[in-house]
Design a protein that fits this description.
By secondary structure, this protein is an alpha+beta fold. The chain has 19 helices and 22 strands. Helix 14 crosses helix 17. Residues about 335-375 and about 385-395 have low confidence and may be disordered. The structure holds adenosine-5'-diphosphate and magnesium ion.
């Protein structure tokens, strides 16, 4: 008995269909990409559905079209106009090339393909109708130049696959996402998407990135983006990303990335982008990123598989580093408050004038026990001020109006936006910057006149020698002093709280807790120290104090988030306020 047999033509096409055509969105993708490959300037997509499924997909383009014979040939398995020799596969510029899509789609649906060749003298267009892989008709009809493809009853003859289809809403969402991605990466083509005859979005083919983003996501969304462009190390990068302080999401659904013209999804790239944000990115949040990345093939072996979205790169680390730098630079050129940089002078009042005493107007309205933290803050702000950035690099400093709940600073900027600052988070950011700046200088620590003894557990004692250098950078100089006892010789300058043995213990605990290279551990130490250095709880502040805090905040590298990634600042723009009051 001969068990092995060659599959018939129809079976082959079903198998191939399984690969190319997973769902309605894949049909849309293949047909739309054919239009782009055919030099279309405008593409229209119409989707219809009943209660349970998408019933019709129509895609019409104004591209090159096909003549009578080619229109039929297009449906033959492995018939393509895009490659002819194996070498062609290396330099593929078109989106399709395998000659499978139309054959596969026609095998599992009812297709009406109408096409008229651009510039052809014949007045006739051609229509090919195929149902489940079977040719129904091949005729001449009247139609404009370009191609329109109607796909009805998708999966009608493949019940197994039909069962895998999700709700109309889900399938539609995939279609929208697919068309959005294609529109975003083909900005010279105009797209319009209709569902049940109603327009869902439209782009205009102007070639401009913001135009397309506005077309897809709306004008308001574009305002939350900042441009990224330039050459950094191995990459040239061009695109738009979410401004710091603007809305982030908990999912990474808004990454639109391409490398050398091909759409890619790459965890490494996503990671590099988020690293570029650093502490500007709230914990667990993702920005939007629309980026075209160009990498010179002479430097880097770029392997974007034509059918897959994953990318493989040689010198990946360097590439990612470059992307990270591009993002970092873009974000630090942008200023959320204002582009005006006034010649704000930092005036450090000498201690004999400011004194340790609490100004009378504060003393008179604050219960005595609340005064300690006030003094602390006051003292720390004076200490940190000397290390603040040079005045000319400070962006506009909002003008303080008052304080709410002993916790939030209320301020305004010169364009009339309302600004609310979490004073604790802001203070933490200032402290972190100070600690970081000092850790890079020689004067991170302040020697204690009387060294402080610190008793550690056995485990801590065992691990401490490895941490001594890191702690020293942070400002802590420790020396062994007999069994499990260490002498603290110096503590960080920025805050006296950091000299508290209990705090030091906590910081060492943090350093020991978890692995990481030297930089990572140091960063953890500095973050914990920053948090501990900041006076906890509610603290009434004077207008001058708050003004000083904001001035210092604006002088930090990342004013809008605390070192742990929480926001320091909320801006309610004038227009947002107008919206809230329903003024138009
Ligand atoms: P591929 O795109 O991989 O070549 P397809 O099955 O998608 O394979 O298409 C087969 C061929 O049909 C294409 O190579 C192209 O020549 C032609 N074709 C398909 N769609 C269009 C269109 N919208 N406009 C012009 N030609 C088209
Ligand atoms: Mg194709």
């Amino acid at each position: 008995m001969n068990k092995i047999h060659v599959l018939d033509e129809e079976t082959i096409s079903h198998i191939a269909a399984g690969e190319v055509v997973e769902r309605a969105a894949s049909v849309v993708k293949e047909i739309v990409e054919n239009g782009i490959d055919a030099d279309a300037k405008s593409i229209r997509i119409e989707i219809s559905a009943d209660k349970t499924s998408i019933t019709r997909i129509l895609v019409a383009d104004d591209g090159l079209g096909l003549n009578f014979d080619d229109a039929l040939l297009a449906f033959r398995q492995h018939a393509t106009s895009k490659v002819s020799r194996p070498e062609d596969l290396d330099g593929i510029k078109t989106l399709g090339f395998r000659g499978e899509a139309l054959a596969s789609i026609a095998a599992i649906s009812k297709v009406t393909f109408t096409t008229k060749e651009r510039g052809s003298p014949s007045p006739e267009a051609t229509r090919v109708v195929i149902h489940g892989g079977e040719l129904i008709s091949h005729s001449s009809v009247g139609a404009p130049e370009g191609t329109s493809v109607i796909v009805d009853n998708l999966f009608y003859n493949t019940p197994a696959r039909r069962k895998f289809q999700k709700s109309v809403a889900t399938e539609l969402a995939h279609v929208y996402d697919m068309v959005e991605r294609i529109a975003l990466s083909n900005r010279n083509v105009s797209f319009v998407l209709l569902y049940q005859g109603k327009e869902r979005f439209r782009t205009f083919g102007t070639g401009s990135y913001p135009d397309v983003i506005a077309g897809v996501f709306g004008n308001g969304f574009v305002k939350e983006l900042t441009p990224v462009s330039g050459t950094y190390g191995l990459v040239t990068i061009d695109g738009w990303i979410t401004k710091s302080g603007c809305e982030m999401k908990t999912t990474q659904t808004r990454f639109y990335l391409s490398i050398n013209g091909r759409q890619v999804s790459s965890r490494q790239l996503q990671w590099a982008i988020r690293e570029g944000y650093g502490t500007l990115l709230p914990k667990g949040m993702y920005p939007a990123a629309f980026l075209d990345i160009t990498i010179d093939r002479r430097d880097v072996d770029v392997n974007v598989h034509p059918t897959k979205k994953e990318v493989r790169l040689s010198r990946e680390r360097e590439v990612m580093r470059s992307v990270q730098d591009a993002i970092y630079n873009a974000l630090h050129e942008e200023r959320i408050f204002s582009s005006i940089i006034p010649q704000e002078k930092i005036v450090t009042l000498p201690p004999e004038i400011v004194g340790e005493s609490v100004p009378e107007y504060v003393a008179s309205r604050v219960p005595a026990r609340s005064l300690a933290p006030f003094r602390q803050t006051e003292k720390q702000l004076r200490r940190t001020e000397t290390y603040a950035a040079p005045p000319e690099t400070i962006a506009f400093v909002p003008e303080v109006l008052g304080q709410v709940g002993d916790t939030y600073i209320i301020a305004k900027n010169e364009s009339g936006d309302l600004i609310i600052v979490d004073q604790h988070a802001a203070h933490e950011r200032i402290m972190y910057d100070q600690l970081l700046a000092r850790s890079e200088s020689a004067e991170s620590g302040q020697e204690l006149i009387v060294p402080l003894p610190l008793t550690l557990t056995k485990k801590e004692t065992a691990a401490l020698p490895d941490l001594l250098d890191i702690l020293k950078k942070a400002g802590y100089d420790l020396e062994p002093f007999g069994k499990d006892v260490w002498m603290i010789r110096s503590v960080p300058v920025v805050s006296s709280t950091l000299g508290d043995p209990e705090v030091i213990h906590a910081i060492i605990g943090e350093a020991l807790d978890g692995l990481g290279n030297t930089d990572e551990v140091l960063d953890r130490v500095l973050k914990t120290a920053a948090c501990r250095a900041v006076v906890k709880g509610n603290t009434p502040l004077t207008i001058e104090e708050m003004q000083r805090l904001l001035r210092q905040l604006m002088a930090t590298k990342s004013p809008y988030t605390c070192p742990h990634g929480r926001p320091t600042t909320i801006v309610l723009s004038k227009s947002r306020l107008a919206g809230m009051f329903l003024r138009t």
